[in-house]
Amino acid sequence: MVLVALPSFALLYSIDEVIDPSITAKCVGHQWFWSYEFCDFESSAGVLNFDSYMVPVDELSIGELRLLEVDNRLVLPINTHIRVLVTAADVLHSWAVPSLGVKLDACIGRLNQTSLFILRESVFYGQCSEICGVGHANMPIVIEAVDLPSYIS
Q: What domains are there in the chain, each with its CATH number?
């Protein structure tokens, strides 16, 4: 037992996160939309937060993806260490963006955490991957990765 435990503890310690993130984005799952909050940037009105709803099919522009486009994208900078906190307000959700290799469960009363380091400018699409009710298919996630000067402006 000890022969397995000692190397395991060393490995667990070595993969523990020690990176100090530059940005923290909090994602809260609601029935049936996502809300985002940036705790690092405070204005006179308080913490920066916004809701992100799916764009209805009849309001889509040419070139926008049906069931994947949102009214407010989560804009994040590239080449920056980002902490993502995920929770839920009502039922279980799952914040998943497959092209970034991220899938995190959103549980009521619990903050789950992951790290992101986006290498290129692009638009990344995802969805809630937990069957959270009748509007489950209406919870897309869109991350727009931009360079740092564009993010700051």
A: 19-152 (2.60.40.420)
3-state secondary structure (DSSP) of residue 22: coil
Q: Which long-range contacts (CB under 8 A, 24 or more apart) does 136-141 make?
A: 136/32, 137/67, 138/32, 138/33, 138/54, 138/67, 139/29, 139/32, 139/33, 139/34, 139/54, 139/93, 140/54, 140/67, 140/68, 140/69, 140/70, 141/34, 141/52, 141/70, 141/74, 141/95, 141/96, 141/97
Asked if 60 and 98 count as a contact pair (C-beta separation under 8 A), the reply is no
pLDDT tens for 32-84 read 899 999 977 666 566 789 999 999 999 999 988 999 999 999 999 999 999 99
The β-bridge relationship of strands 74-77 and 82-88 is: unpaired
What is the value of pTM for the model shown? 0.84
CB neighbour list of residue 123: distance below 8 Å, 6 or more residues apart: 73, 142, 143, 144, 145
